[in-house]
Write a structure and sequence with these properties.
Helix content is about 40%, strand content about 25%. It contains four helices and seven strands.
Length: about 200
């Protein structure tokens, strides 16, 4: 559609053909003025018809050119509508991760808000732990933490930050729940691992 909308060859050719037809008619008329009856009236009428036809072909070519431009606009709107429809059906994860479970498959109908997949973030993990309620009353959020994983005789330490301390105290054991975000860009940690979480002292 864009190619057709930008192609004005037909219009230019029609204008050239009209110029030639007018020139032939003018030469015939001038010949008759200099040499009466050198060109028959039938030939003059035929040349006049060709000149008129050439003018109409210019109008038709202009009209076709405008139709091609309007068709381009329609196609552009169709493309925008299709792009919007595609974007509305695109699933974009809010974080980098790995799909571990598909709940819907290609071709299945999905209602807005329905779960489609289960995605696990791997580059930054959340560590859940429990802390004595007496200790949790201090300002702990934002403290650096060390997530220490025992691997055989070797212990590996990963850095992180404490991001949440629950205001609720478990009445059974007197502990509160805390969350820490652990950096795992090297992907050495796996979700579900157990480890020791050490909170750095306040500076």
């Amino acid at each position: 559609a864009r190619s057709a909308a930008e192609n004005d060859v037909t219009v230019r050719f029609a204008k050239l053909a009209a110029a030639v037809a007018k020139a032939e008619l003018q030469r015939a008329q001038e010949s008759n003025e200099k040499f009466p009856k050198s060109v028959s009236q039938t030939e003059i009428d035929r040349l006049q018809l060709l000149a008129d036809k050439a003018e109409l072909e210019i109008e038709q070519a202009d009209l076709n050119f405008k139709h091609a431009q309007l068709s381009l606009l329609v196609k552009q709107h169709d493309l925008e509508r299709a792009s919007l429809a595609l974007e509305r059906r695109r699933l974009t994860a809010p974080f980098p991760g790995m799909v571990v479970q598909w709940r819907k498959h290609r071709g299945e109908w999905v209602e807005p808000g329905a779960p489609v997949m289960r995605l696990i973030r791997l580059d930054r993990l959340r560590a859940d732990a429990f802390l004595s309620a007496e200790t949790s009353f201090t300002n702990l959020v934002g403290r650096k933490v060390a997530f220490i994983v025992a691997s055989g005789t070797e212990a590996k330490q990963h850095e992180g930050e404490l991001v949440f301390v629950s205001p609720e105290i478990d009445p059974v054991n007197g502990q509160v729940r805390i969350w820490a975000e652990i950096d795992n860009k090297d992907l050495l940690l796996r979700p579900g691992q157990t480890a020791a979480l050490i909170i750095s002292p306040a500076k």
